[in-house]
Design a protein that fits this description.
The structure holds 2 protein chains of 2 kinds. Chain A is α+β, with helices and mostly antiparallel strands. Chain A has 10 helices and 38 strands. In chain A, strands 1, 28, 29, 31, 33, 34 and 36 form a 7-stranded mixed β-sheet that branches. Chain A has a 7-stranded parallel β-sheet with strand order 10-11-9-12-14-16-17, with helices on both faces. In chain A, strands 4-5-3-8 form a 4-stranded antiparallel β-sheet, covered by helices on one side. Chain B is globular, with a radius of gyration of 17 Å. The model of chain B is unreliable at 1-23 and 25-36 (pLDDT under 50). Classes of the chains: A alpha+beta, B mainly beta. At the A-B interface, strand 13, helix 8, strand 33, strand 36 and strand 37 of A face strand 8 and strand 9 of B.
C-alpha cells in the first residue's frame, strides 16, 4: 500500500533572532508604552516551475453565435465608427479596435422547416456576412460573434491532479454525457472496497471467483462477497488495485470530494478474481463468463449481465481457455477491454491480444507511449496510464493516474498508480458513456466508435490511436455506430503546442475524421502576439486521413523571462455548420517562470504560528511586497499560494517559502520601529505526496501550518 | 481529510551518509571488476540499492506488474566485499498490470549478526539478483 506521505518538522533556531536591516531614517523617538510600527518590504523569487496550461477544447465544436452579429477587428488606424459598408449596420464599438456590425440581410435568410434547421440558416448567413466583411479594406479580422460556453469542470477536490482526463477530452465530454445507471461495467480485479464514498450508490451485486482460500485471503473459496480484503502484494501492504481501477471507470464525479471517474452514473459490478499472487486462468475465465451472464462454475449468473468488462490484468502467452471465455462473452454482446501489459515488449499477452478483446496501451502526459507499455500490433487503442518517474506538468505530483485507494488498516483515500492497468479503465469508462448515449449500440459498434474516433498522428506505435471521449460521444450522439460520424469531425492531434524553453518550430495536425468536406474559414483568429507566426498547409497523412497542418514558429527576441501563452482558433465551414478547434500555444523564455496565483505573505508568531499580519503580491507586482503598521516584535516571515483555497499555505502542489530560506527559517525581529527592507527569499513547490488519506491525519503532526487571514 | 505536506527542510536527512553508490557499467560479461569499473550483468526489472544513514541496506525493485517477489537468499563476504544475494520470482499467474515497487530493507544488525559480520569491514556491498533458480547477476554496487 502506497502511503508515502512525507512529513517534516519545522526546525527553528531557538535564539538566532534576526535583526532586520535598517532602512534608514525613521527610527528613534516614540513615546514610551506606545508600540512602534514599521514597514516590511521585500521580494519573492519564484521557482523554476512553469504554470500549468489548461488544454483547450479540441474536437468538433458547434459553437453558438449571436444571430446576425459580426465582430470585426479593425486594421491599425482605422475607425469602425466611420466605416460604411453596404448591408451592415454598426451596432456598437468600444475604445479598442473591435466593433460589432449587424448584417441587415441575415435574418431574412433564416428559414425553419418542420422544426429542423435547414442549410440556409441564420448561422450560415452570419458566416457569409463575416466573409464579406473580411474583404473590406479597413477590416483585419471578421468573425461571427460566437458565444463561448464553459465546459464542465468537476468540483472534486483533487480533480486538478487528474491530468489524464484532459488528455482524452473529458471536460467537453461531460457537457454531453455523464453516464447512465442503466449501464453496467464489470471490474474483474482484486475486488472493490465498497465502503469508499466514491462508490456510494454505484455498486451492483458481484462475485468472489477466487477458488483458493489462501489466495483469496478471506477464509473461503468462491462466494457472492467480492469485497477486497487485500492481496498483500508487497511486504508493505496490499495493492487495492481493483478499487483504483474502479475509481477511474466510475468514481462519483462533481460531488465536491476526492476524484472524478470517467462515468459518473454507471453501475459497477465487482467481480473478484485476483488475489495474493494474481489470478488463475480458471478463476478469471469463470469471472468473465459470470459477468457476461453465461454458464460458469458457480452455477449462478447476475440478474443483469454487464455491458462492458474491464480487465486490468494479464499474463504472457495466449491461453486457449481464456480465449474461449472471452470469445463467448463477446458473442453474448459484451465489450471486453483489457490492459496490453507493462513489459515494454511487442509480444502479445492474454487476454488483451485476443480478437474479441479491445487491447489498451498506456500513454504518458505528453501523449506518447509510456516507457513500460507493451506495443504489440494487437494493441487497439491507447489511453493514459501515466509515468510516475516524471512530473512534467510541474504540479508537484508524479505523472501517474490519480484514483481511489484503500489500505490494510481500513483507511480510504486516493493515490497515483501507473500502468496499462490504469489505461484500460479509461477506455471502459468511455465505452460506458457511449452506451449511455445510445443504449442500442452493440459491443461491435462500441468498439468501432472508440477506435474510429480516436486521435491519430501522435507517433504512437503501429500508427496507434489515443481514445477521444468527446469525439466518440459526439459520433454516438449523431448516430454514427459505424465508427465514422456522419458529419465532419474536427480534431487537433495536439491541443497544446508547447515550445518549452528551446523549440522554435512546431507543427500540429488538424484532421477531419468524419465525413463530408471541411473548408478552412478564411484563415484563423489568433491574438495579435508578435512572437508567434502561424501558417496552415493542406496535407494528407499516410493513413489517408485528410487534414491540415498548422505550422507554428516563435521568436523569443526581446521577450522577458517567463511564460507567454495564447490560443489559436481555426474555424472551418461544412455547409452551414461552423466547426472550430483551439490550439493553445505556450512559450517559455529563460529558465525562470512564474506562477499566476496570488501569493500571500504572512508575519506569524514564531511560537504559536498565529498569523499577525498579511499582505498579498503577484506577478503583476513583480512579487514584491510591503507590509505597513507592523509593531515591534519577533515574527516568522512566510509566503505561499493557496491554490486549493483552504486558507492554508504550503499544501501539496502549492508554492511556499520562508525567510531567509525554507531550509533554515529565521525569525525577523523588529526593534524600535526600524523598517525592515530587502527581505528577499525564494518559494518552492511543496513536496510531493503520493497518497491522500481519508481521516488518516498522522499522529506526529508536528509541522506548523500557516493560515492566511480572510 | 487533508493532503498534508510540509516543505520545510529535512536537514538531518541531508547529513548523510557518506556512501557513494558506484555506477554499474552495463553490458559486462560476468560482473567482474577491474581497476576502474564494476560491470553489472543483471537484466531484469530495474534494481536500485543504497545504504541508509543507520547502516541498513535498502534495495528496491521496480516490477512491471503485481505478483513479483524479491527475497533475501544470503549475505556472504567475498574478497573484502559484502555480497547480498536476492532472489526475484516473476508471477506465473495472470496479474494486475500496475507498476509495483518492491522495497527490501536489510537491517544493519541482521547483516552483521546473522550473517557473520559480513558488513563489518566490507568496503563495498554487491547486490546480486537471481531470477528464480538461475545464477545470480550483479545488479548494483554500493560503496561504504
Amino acid at each position: 500500500m502506497m502511503n508515502t506521505k512525507t512529513r517534516t518538522s519545522l526546525l527553528l533556531p531557538a535564539v538566532a533572532l534576526f535583526a532586520a536591516s535598517c532602512g534608514g531614517g525613521g527610527g528613534g523617538g516614540g513615546a514610551a508604552n506606545v508600540p512602534q510600527t514599521t514597514t516590511l518590504q521585500g521580494t519573492l523569487q519564484m521557482p523554476q516551475v512553469a504554470p500549468q496550461i489548461a488544454p483547450p477544447a479540441t474536437g468538433m465544436l458547434e459553437q453558438p453565435m449571436v444571430p446576425g452579429e459580426v465582430v470585426v477587428w479593425m486594421k491599425p488606424g482605422r475607425d469602425a465608427a466611420s466605416m460604411n459598408m453596404e448591408g451592415f449596420d454598426l451596432v456598437r464599438t468600444g475604445a479598442g479596435r473591435t466593433a460589432i456590425f449587424h448584417a441587415r440581410c441575415s435574418e431574412g435568410r433564416s428559414s425553419i422547416k418542420h422544426g429542423a434547421r435547414v442549410e440556409d440558416s441564420v448561422e450560415k448567413a452570419t458566416c457569409d456576412a463575416a466573409e464579406q466583411m473580411k474583404l473590406h479594406d479597413d477590416v483585419m479580422i471578421a468573425s461571427p460573434n460566437y458565444i463561448y460556453q464553459a465546459t464542465v469542470q468537476p468540483n472534486d477536490t483533487y480533480y486538478q491532479a487528474q491530468w489524464h482526463y484532459d488528455q482524452i477530452n473529458m471536460p467537453q465530454t461531460w457537457d454531453l454525457q455523464q453516464g447512465s445507471s442503466n449501464v453496467i461495467v464489470a471490474v474483474l480485479d482484486t475486488g472493490i472496497v465498497s465502503s469508499h464514498p466514491e462508490f456510494a450508490g454505484r455498486l451492483v451485486g458481484g462475485y468472489d471467483m477466487i477458488s483458493d482460500p489462501q489466495r483469496a485471503r478471506d477464509g473461503d473459496g468462491r462466494d457472492p462477497n467480492p469485497e477486497d480484503v487485500g492481496d498483500l502484494q508487497t511486504p508493505q501492504g496490499s495493492s487495492f488495485h481493483g478499487t483504483h481501477c474502479a475509481g477511474t471507470i466510475g468514481a462519483n464525479g462533481n460531488d465536491g470530494q476526492g476524484v472524478a471517474g470517467v462515468d459518473w452514473n454507471c453501475k459497477l459490478m465487482n467481480v473478484r478474481c485476483l488475489g495474493q499472487g494474481g489470478g488463475t486462468i480458471e478463476d478469471i475465465a469463470n469471472a468473465i463468463l459470470w459477468a457476461a451472464g453465461l454458464p460458469n462454475a458457480t452455477g449462478t449468473v447476475p440478474p443483469q449481465r454487464a455491458d462492458i468488462i474491464s480487465m486490468s490484468l494479464g499474463g504472457p502467452g495466449l491461453n486457449p481457455i481464456m480465449q474461449q471465455a472471452c470469445d463467448q462473452a463477446a458473442a453474448a454482446g459484451v465489450l471486453l477491454v483489457a490492459a496490453a501489459g507493462n513489459d515494454n515488449t511487442d509480444q502479445p499477452q492474454s487476454p488483451a491480444a485476443f480478437d474479441s478483446v479491445l487491447s489498451v496501451g498506456a500513454t504518458d502526459i505528453v501523449r506518447q507511449r509510456a516507457p513500460y507499455s507493451n506495443f504489440s500490433p494487437t494493441v487497439d487503442l491507447w489511453a493514459p496510464g501515466g509515468d510516475m518517474s516524471v512530473d512534467r506538468d510541474g504540479d508537484g505530483f508524479p505523472d501517474g493516474v490519480l484514483s481511489t485507494i484503500a489500505d490494510d488498516n481500513g483507511n480510504l483515500g486516493y493515490t497515483f498508480y501507473q500502468g496499462t492497468s490504469m489505461a484500460c479503465p479509461h477506455v471502459a469508462g468511455v465505452a460506458a458513456l457511449l452506451k449511455a448515449q445510445d443504449p442500442s449500440l452493440t459491443a461491435s459498434e462500441l468498439r468501432q466508435l472508440l477506435i474510429g474516433t480516436a486521435v491519430t498522428g501522435l507517433n504512437l506505435p503501429n500508427q496507434g490511436r489515443l481514445v477521444d471521449a468527446f469525439a466518440a460521444v459526439q459520433a454516438a450522439q449523431q448516430g454514427g455506430g459505424g465508427g465514422q460520424p456522419n458529419a465532419p469531425a474536427l480534431v487537433a492531434a495536439q491541443s497544446v503546442a508547447d515550445f518549452g524553453a528551446d523549440l522554435t518550430e512546431l507543427s500540429v495536425r488538424i484532421e477531419n475524421r468524419g465525413t463530408g468536406d471541411l473548408v478552412l474559414d478564411g484563415g484563423f483568429a489568433t491574438p495579435p502576439v508578435s512572437w508567434l507566426s502561424a501558417e496552415v498547409f493542406d496535407v494528407t497523412a499516410n493513413d489517408g486521413i485528410d487534414g491540415d497542418e498548422l505550422r507554428l514558429s516563435v521568436d523569443r527576441t526581446g521577450l522577458p523571462n517567463g511564460v507567454e501563452q495564447t490560443t489559436i482558433t481555426l474555424n472551418y465551414l461544412a455547409g452551414g455548420q461552423l466547426l472550430s478547434v483551439d490550439v493553445a500555444v505556450r512559450l517559455q523564455v529563460g529558465q525562470s517562470t512564474v506562477t499566476s496565483d496570488t501569493v500571500f505573505v504572512l508575519l506569524v508568531d514564531p511560537v504559536t504560528f498565529e498569523t499577525k499580519y498579511q499582505t498579498e503580491t503577484s506577478v503583476g507586482q513583480g512579487f514584491s511586497f510591503a507590509m505597513q503598521g507592523v509593531v515591534d516584535g519577533t515574527y516568522l516571515l512566510v509566503a505561499g499560494t493557496d491554490r486549493d483555497n483552504d486558507d492554508f499555505l504550503g499544501d501539496a502542489g502549492e508554492l511556499f517559502g520562508a525567510f531567509p530560506s525554507l531550509d533554515q527559517p529565521i525569525p525577523v525581529q523588529i526593534v524600535g520601529g526600524r523598517a525592515a527592507t530587502n527581505l528577499s527569499f525564494a518559494l518552492q513547490e511543496t513536496v510531493t505526496v503520493t497518497s491522500f488519506g481519508l481521516g488518516d491525519e498522522p499522529a506526529d503532526d508536528a509541522a506548523p501550518r500557516f493560515r492566511r487571514l480572510d | 481529510m487533508r493532503a498534508r505536506t510540509s516543505a520545510f527542510a529535512r536537514a538531518p536527512l541531508a547529513l548523510a551518509v557518506m556512501m557513494l553508490p558506484l555506477a554499474c557499467a552495463g553490458g559486462g560479461a560476468d560482473g567482474h571488476r577491474d581497476d576502474d569499473m564494476i560491470e553489472c550483468d543483471y537484466q531484469g526489472p530495474p534494481v536500485t540499492a543504497e545504504l541508509l544513514a543507520n547502516g541498513d541496506l535498502r534495495v528496491e525493485m521496480t516490477a512491471p506488474t503485481a505478483g513479483h517477489t524479491l527475497a533475501l537468499v544470503d549475505v556472504a563476504r567475498v574478497d573484502g566485499r559484502a555480497v547480498v544475494h536476492l532472489r526475484h520470482d516473476a508471477p506465473t499467474d495472470l496479474v494486475a498490470q500496475v507498476i509495483t515497487t518492491l522495497p527490501l530493507v536489510l537491517p544493519a544488525d541482521s547483516l552483521t549478526d546473522a550473517f557473520g559480520g559480513a558488513f563489518g569491514g566490507a568496503r563495498e556491498v554487491h547486490v546480486r539478483v537471481s531470477h528464480g533458480d538461475d545464477a545470480p547477476q550483479l545488479a548494483a554496487v554500493v560503496a561504504r
